[in-house]
Amino acid sequence: MSQIYDRVALIGLGLIASSMYWAIKRAGLAGEVTGYARSEATRDTARRIGLCDRVCDTAQEAVEGADLVVLCVPVGAMGAVAKDIAPVLKPGATVSDVGSVKRHVIEEVGPHIPEGVHFVPAHPLAGTEHSGPESGFAELFDNRWCLLVPVEGSDPEAIARLRALWEGMGSNVDEMDADHHDLVLAVTSHAPHLIAYTMVGVADDLRRVTDSEVIKYSAAGFRDFTRIAASDPTMWRDVFLTNKDATLEILGRFTEELFALQRAIRTGDGQHLFDYFTHTRAIRRGIIDAGQDTDAPDFGRVKAKS
Ligand code: NAP
User: Fold this and answer.
1) Which of 79, 146, 76, 74 is nearest to 107 (CA)?
2) Cβ partners under 8 Å of residue 92, min gap 6
3) Where in the chain is the domain with CATH 1.10.3660.10?
4) Which of 18, 34, 51, 72 to mutate for ligand 1's pocket (most ligand atoms within 8 Å of CB)?
5) Does the pTM exceed 0.90?
6) Kind and range of the H or E element at 167?
7) How many CB atoms lie under 10 A from the CB of residue 286?
8) pLDDT in the model for residue 293
9) What is the CATH architecture assignment of 5-176?
């Protein structure tokens, strides 16, 4: 793979930025990658583990001279970061982001983008429940989708270059409109996370099932809820605050379906339950056929070496 940008700046050095850095290095996609994180502790960790070619003490320093700047901070922090770096952005540079919500980011970041600088928002559909500079790995984006969400007037050449970067990092790339993106993600990611948070909270409240029992017997489904519910609280707070409408719409639909299933259980309507579960099983099959998960038993966990 050949070099796509001379200089890339990563603002925020958590799971996504660190995975980007290792993936960029793996394929030689950039000449130099600079990085900035808000806290000194994160910057020190980044320097210690060799994350980024140069770790800077200010966002402006990291951004100066960069051809591509990627905002990798929580959605609620994007606007303030964009405002801070705007005066030093290089003419002709591209600003992108990796935020999980797109309409809000476009509204908050867009007004700060100077004339002559391109803005191409993006969202890699890949993650883990871990966060921070040490949680990243080069393979995170392999065979995962990255959605580019160009804004009105986004330069086709800037879009094509960013697409090449994400493809070089292992992703499949699609383009999507911001509102549709936020609805799709409400269904596929945001509402499921909220449901997982709720389920784990409910189990915690249920004192009839002791804590040790919840942990000991968690393999039967609950364990996967706990993994999702361990996701970063700041990131997910911001997702729900900024993708309010779509998430509330999907949760409304979820509640209706839940009531229907509740009624089927109460009235002993086995046919309803059977048909419903047959349909959902087919959806799972579709995800495996699309290569977005494996069919390995035990939820794809790697078996411990005996
Ligand atoms: P992360 O591991 O928690 O890292 C976040 C980084 O942002 C840290 O370097 C943090 O700095 C910095 N930061 C936090 N608040 C800030 C603020 N107010 N101002 C400036 N910097 C701030 O997060 P992540 O998982 O990489 O997520 C980053 C972005 O990617 C989010 O917008 C998220 O929605 C999106 N995303 C996440 C996933 C996922 O599964 N995790 C997947 C796709 C997209 P300090 O360390 O110094 O606090």
Assistant:
1) 79
2) 67, 116, 117, 118
3) 180-268
4) 72
5) yes
6) helix 156-168
7) 10
8) 79
9) 3-Layer(aba) Sandwich (3.40)
